[in-house]
Amino acid sequence: MTDMTAQLDDDRPLRPAMLRGWRRRCPACGEGRMFEGYLKVRPTCPSCGEDLSHHRADDGPAYLTILIVGHLMAPLIMVAFVEFRPSPLVLASTFSAGCVALSLYLLPRLKGVIVGIQWAKRMHGFGSAPKDD
């Protein structure tokens, strides 16, 4: 590993970028809002001007949302069915609403995390070398 590569890896810590993404903030400064709407990433940060148009989140946030919601709700459905024996309609409607609500909550946050990871790891164009003045 060259000195330049080590320097590029050190100046963008992963954990703060992921936490900022979870909060739906710019991974660089943590101040500006990352999204224009529900899931549309802004081209640049309104606070620091960081170019966010390089992100390639694609289907990753959706897969992670399905994975998390499925792993949380499946055991809860089993426990609710065994312990409380609700009617099938009550069980289905309650857990359908819960799955939709949890999915809507997690999806933009997980997209922010993925954009934060891409920024920290300098993936997909986020890795342009710093300019020498």
UniProtKB/TrEMBL annotation:
The keyword Transmembrane applies. Pfam families: DUF983. Keywords: Membrane, Transmembrane, Transmembrane helix. The chain crosses the membrane at residues 62-82, 88-107. This is Uncharacterized protein (DUF983 family). It comes from Albidovulum denitrificans.
